[in-house]
Design brief:
The protein is an alpha+beta fold and about 70 residues long. It has a domain of about 45 residues. The chain is about 25% helix and about 20% strand. Strands 3-1-2-4 form a 4-stranded mixed sheet. The longest helix has 11 residues. The chain is elongated and about 50 Å long. It starts with 7 loop residues before the first helix and ends with a strand. Keywords: Signal.
């Protein structure tokens, strides 16, 4: 139930921002659901929608990911 006095737009914004609280902007690396680490600026970085964010390629690879071939 939504409390009175809190605009729906504020709740939606909070929900969106709280999904990945560490990153106010885009993460440096996105690990896709197929365990491929896409660095910012990489060919498929912006196409990767379902991902786990990482601060570095090293952290992504240590989590079980692999570097993208392209």
């Amino acid at each position: 139930m939504i409390k009175q006095g809190i605009p729906l737009s504020a709740l939606l914004l909070f929900t969106t921002l709280s999904a990945h609280p560490v990153f106010a902007s885009e993460p440096q690396v996105k690990k896709s659901k197929t365990n491929i680490c896409h660095p910012k600026g990489g060919r498929y970085y912006h196409k990767t929608k379902n991902y786990t964010p990482y601060n570095s390629m090293e952290a992504c690879i240590q989590s079980g990911g692999r570097a993208a071939k392209r």
